[in-house]
Specification:
By secondary structure, this protein is of the alpha+beta class. The chain folds into three domains: about 15-225, no CATH class; about 290-440, Oxidoreductase, molybdopterin-binding domain (Sulfite Oxidase, Chain A, domain 2, Alpha-Beta Complex), CATH 3.90.420; about 450-555, Immunoglobulin-like. The chain contains eleven helices and 18 strands. Strands 2-1-10-5-6 form a five-stranded mixed beta sheet. Strands 3, 4, 7, 8 and 9 form a five-stranded antiparallel beta sheet that branches. It has a four-stranded antiparallel beta sheet with strand order 11-12-16-15, with no helix packed on it. Helix 3 (about 60-70) crosses helix 6 and helix 5 (about 85-110) packs parallel to helix 7. The chain is globular. The structure holds the ligand Nc1nc2c(c(=O)[nH]1)N[C@H]1C(S)=C(S)[C@@H](COP(=O)(O)O)O[C@H]1N2 and molybdenum atom (MO). Molybdenum atom (MO) binds near residues 322 and 323.
């Protein structure tokens, strides 16, 4: 009944919108209120996160929780379709969803103020729950979301009160759940009353936006400043010369072919695969690595300085991701500097299972809660399994695990290459499943022998005549023995191999093709030093790496 009287009384006022207009205006004001409240919540949360830690900002914790709950198939899809942009896409998605909810809540609030505002509070609660559920959660991590939720609640309650005024609800009606429940007398104030209230809303809204923008900007600035300080502390580190340098790279590792991957992948171009929405920026001076668990007779805690004081080894190792499709980009070769992991394990009393050790799994934990399990037997079998501190002549980049990560030749990254390492635990495969193993991937995953055509690119149209077909092949810790190429399903031709650096690195290859005009399919397969030739059977990346021959279709004019 109140509704009827409101509409009736609103009609004559100067800005008295007709029935449809008034509803449109209400929706508009509600949407604006919701968006402003949402923006304010995020901005204030950003400021609070600067006091707590950047990783505790609501979008990061909600995004992180979403990543951990994403079904593996979808995650695979995201990585495949958005590549390294998958995180930006996720964050954008969260912001869009948040914006839509803010609009809905705002519109509800113009009619049911308490319900709308309480829904805003509930949103803060989602952030709090996400923050508390992170594997690396610290109690203070819930603060940014909690404060943000309270700010959204208060601001929406306030703005919704302002937004309803043009319709003639008296301020006294604030106590009422239903906006139309209030007296309609104010509407009788006429056009000037409505105009004043609307101005009041605009002033309140503008003030709220300005204050939040200020808070958000300050938060951003403080967070950026912290990151800059951490970057400076990384830049201060000079890695000592390795006691055991890498073998000089033989000449001829890289056939001179345009479009062929360079033998070393620069840090800037090195693929990045991880679940971290904001790259952890660990302080090397306070960093600690704890080594403990089954069969550890002398548990140790090592500092970064402890590692620097040891004999460092330098090795060339090609890293590969299990999510790499046939022909995919998630493989890179770098020169690493680090400490031999097997030495550190032996000093702590660890023995591999073949020597009677009780633990068959080494679980590495990162500062952001990732767990990565490697076979103890493998990391102690004499290969150059490293606690790496340096990559291509500089301290590890933050994105690649600063200050310390693992690198194990021959094992896919998800079972060996833990970045931002902070804990090593000796356990068994029976007792513990690591992060990806819980998500349908295999417990053990040696890298499969693979080859890729880098040039010509798919759908290229090289001129008829001699066309160099070139690419890379890898079978880490086995070594590549042979690479063959064929055209249109014809006979296999042996490619010329680039010189081998070590069996832990990839190998470049080239085959001069006498191209004739028409559409052609080029295929490649590699044979490793155990005599195994890549199977043509195509399987997907799950659960332990893709197989099949890479092929490229070109059309020669
Ligand atoms: N902490 C942490 N370490 C991690 C991951 C991760 O998500 N978190 N991903 C692993 C995977 S799947 C791969 S393939 C390699 C990739 O290392 P890169 O990003 O330096 O190339 O890191 C491994 N180490
Ligand atoms: Mo990976």
């Amino acid at each position: 009944m109140g509704r009827v009287s409101r509409e009736a009384s609103a009609t004559p006022s100067k800005n008295g919108p007709g029935r449809g207009q008034s509803r449109a205006l209400r929706v508009l004001l509600g949407a604006a209120s919701g968006l402003i409240a949402g923006f304010a919540a995020l901005a204030v949360a950003e400021l609070v996160s600067a006091a707590v830690r950047p990783e505790a900002s609501p979008i990061t914790v909600v995004g992180g929780a979403a990543v951990d709950r994403t079904p593996p198939g979808l995650k695979d899809f995201a990585v495949r379709h958005f590549g390294t942009n998958d995180k930006a896409v996720l964050q954008l998605g969260i912001v869009v969803v948040l914006g839509l909810f803010a609009i809905v809540i705002g519109v509800i609030a113009t009619r049911h103020r308490r319900i709308g505002a309480t829904a805003a509070l509930a949103f803060g609660a989602v952030g709090v729950a996400a923050a508390a559920s992170r594997p690396d959660a610290q109690p203070t991590d819930v603060l940014p979301s909690a404060v943000g939720g309270v700010v959204a609640f208060a601001l929406l309650y306030w703005l919704a009160g302002r937004a309803r005024e043009p319709y003639g609800a008296a301020p006294a009606a604030d106590a009422g759940e239903d906006i139309s429940g209030g007296g309609s007398t104010r509407a009788g104030d006429g056009g000037s009353g409505g105009a004043f209230d609307r101005r009041g809303f605009v002033v309140a809204a503008t003030a709220a936006v300005a204050a939040s923008a200020g808070a958000g900007a300050l938060g951003r600035y403080l967070n950026a400043d912290k990151v800059a300080q951490q970057a400076a502390s990384r830049a201060d580190i000079t890695l000592p010369r390795p006691a055991s340098p890498a073998r000089p790279v033989p000449s001829g590792v890289h056939p001179d072919v345009k479009g062929l991957s360079s033998f070393f992948t620069s840090n800037k171009d090195f693929y990045r695969v991880d679940t971290a929405l904001s790259v952890p920026h660990v302080d090397a001076t306070t960093w600690r690595l704890r080594l403990h668990g089954k069969g550890v007779s002398r548990p140790v805690t090592l500092t970064f300085q402890d590692l620097l004081r040891r004999d460092l080894v330098e090795r060339d190792i090609t890293l590969t991701c299990v999510s790499n499709e046939v022909g995919g980009p998630y493989v890179g070769n770098a020169r690493w500097i680090g400490v031999r992991l097997a030495d550190v394990l032996s000093e702590a009393g660890v023995k591999p299972p073949s020597h009677g050790g009780p633990a068959d799994q080494l679980v590495a934990r990162s500062v952001d809660g990732m767990t990565i399990g490697s076979p103890v037997e493998t990391v102690m079998d004499g290969r150059d399994a490293l606690l790496a501190l340096g990559m291509n002549g500089e301290p590890l980049p933050f994105a690649h695990g600063f200050p310390v990560r693992m690198v194990v030749p021959g094992l896919y990254g998800y079972v060996s290459a833990c970045k931002w390492l902070t804990d090593l635990e000796l356990t068994t495969f029976d007792d513990f499943d690591a992060y990806w193993v819980k998500r349908t991937w295999s417990q053990k995953a040696p890298i499969k022998t693979e080859s890729r055509i880098d040039t010509p690119r798919p759908f290229a149209s090289p001129k008829a005549g001699t066309v160099p077909v070139a690419g890379v092949a890898w079978a880490q810790h086995k070594g590549i023995a042979k690479v063959e190429v064929r055209v249109d399903g014809g006979p296999w031709h042996e490619a010329k191999l680039g010189a081998q650096d070590t069996s832990d690195t990839w190998r470049q290859w080239v085959w001069p093709w006498q191209a004739t005009s028409g559409s052609h399919t080029l295929e490649v397969r590699a044979t490793d030093r155990t005599g195994y030739t890549q199977t043509d059977k195509r399987v997907g990346t799950v659960p332990n790496g893709a197989t099949g021959w890479h092929s490229v279709v070109v059309s020669v004019p």
